[in-house]
Write a structure and sequence with these properties.
The protein is α+β, with helices and mostly antiparallel strands. The protein is built from 8 helices and 9 strands. The chain has a 9-stranded antiparallel beta sheet.
Amino acid sequence: MDQGGTARGLSWLPDVYDIGFTLTLSEGLTPYEPLRRVGAEERHIVPLIRAAARELLLRREEDHISDLDFLDREDEAAAARLTHGGFLPAPPRTIVRAGSVADWAYALEEIHWHAGTRLAELSRRGRAFCVDSNAKGFTRVEFARHAELLSSFEPGLPHLASGVPAEEALGFVHHGGEPGHLSFLRFLEGALGLDIPWEETESELPSAAFT
């Protein structure tokens, strides 16, 4: 989806990541720190554009690596880095790509999720959020602070919540009228003043593969 370089904030994510996405936000971290905190080794982190990560996720193990559009078939060193990092030969279950805006690090995943399972660890320096949304419209939001998971909920479905209610922990109330994931992303835009430019997430970001 070509946003023309104009998409700002956070609420563009559902349109671009239309097969599902997980956005994890961590206060006070650099881009590499979320990757290390969710289990990546520094030597296995590889810079990837979003199109390359998506291609690696969706390929079949029997496909030859020469079929990868982003990889120069003459670049043996790049192929070796991807193999050493767990991106090849079998498709990883998920790829976490990380960047930063203001005092926040963000991690993006498509199809499956991993970073959100370590949310308490990601919140040791302050707050952390995980928004997990799939193509069927299911959205789960979790909030942690100072290494403690405080709240877990699906916007608009309070009976599925656990921990501190969202309105008490965050001041968030879903009034309907738009999908829950979009409502919460708009809330975060305003509450945190966060702006993740679409074009930045399409470019190279530090990335780690998880099986």
